[in-house]
Amino acid sequence: MIPHTRPRRSRLRLKGFTLVELMVAMTIGLIVLGAIVYLFIGIRQTFRTTDSQSRMQENARYALEMVARDVRMAGFIGCGNLEFIPVNVMASPAPANGISFATAVTGADSATGSIGGIALAGADTITITGALDGVVSIAEEATDPLNANLKVYGNPYGYVQNDVLSVTDCRTMDVFRVTNSPSVELDTAVQITLTHSNGSNTGNRIGRYGLDAFIMRVGTYTYFIGLNPATNRPALYRANLSRGLEGAVQTRELVDNVQDMQIEYGVHEAGETAPESYLSAGAIADWTRVSSVRINLLMVSADDAIVSEPQTYIFNGASVTADDRRLYQTYTATIAVRNRVP
After folding, report:
1. Into how many domains does the chain fold?
2. Domain region containing 155
3. Which of 200, 231, 256, 342 has the smallest number of CB atoms closer than 10 Å to its CB?
């Protein structure tokens, strides 16, 4: 007889994590999460810093190139030496700052709010006079001084009413204001009429010019640091003192976040062309001896909290500590006035 055996019941024992194990796991998880957050914040801050530096460098290069282009061409009117060319300025009312080819480059040590009403005091300004575009040839001889019309080949540079133009054969020169609205014409085979009637000129009597004469747009620009009224941030501005009538200044923002501009001028001795020294605007007695310009720009980041603490930087030979946590960088360029160097 086979004995009857009762099957044993296997008791399944469920085993979980202890409280200590849970605490250890949570601690390790928090450490890993903290490391990830710290790494993310570091990468994000590095990106913000690098991005701000790139934008500042790009803006500085553009700003310096804009100023340098006009400084290089200061005093250029298509002829060799203005000292031997009589200039008759007949534009009336005169441009806001007049037209002076002899000085070509002037400056001031500190701007005033009178420039467009937005200039920041303390920053320097530079004013440049010269040709703004290329040459347009005379299409017909101007032999009748009573005729208020000049015919030229095309209008590729877009002359408009109230533009100030010069006509010269490098023996004499007349500077007048355009009184009609000439059409834009890129085809230099098409003749365009430019009118200089009495309404915006002292008279319509210009000199007699042959087919060797040419026309150029001339003007005066002032570069300054102004405060953008919309953003309340500093920017580099350019004021066109020529296109508007007397007392009217047309301003245009070129580059934002330009904190300051300080300028020195290379001055040469009589009979020389190389600069002997670099002086501030207030120390210059004869602007005709300026042969180069040294521009110092202070750029600032658009965003705050880029650096961990206020930055100390060197600008214009002085150590400055910022009053915020923006990033600051300085840029310098020296530009030759081409019409005053060999």
Report:
1. 1
2. 51-340
3. 342
